Amino acid sequence: MEHIITNSINNQNATKYYYPNSVFNPGDIYTFKESKLTYQAKPIQCRVEANGCHTCISHSTDNRGYFHLKREEKNMKVHRRVYELIHGPIPQGLFVLHKCHNSECCNPKHLKLGDHDDNMIDRHLAGRTACGSKHGKSKLTDDQVKEIWFLLASGKSCASIARIFAVNPKTITDIKNGKTWKQVTDPLRNRLIAA
Question: Does residue 82 contact residue 111 with C-beta atoms inside 8 Å?
Answer without folding.
Answer: yes
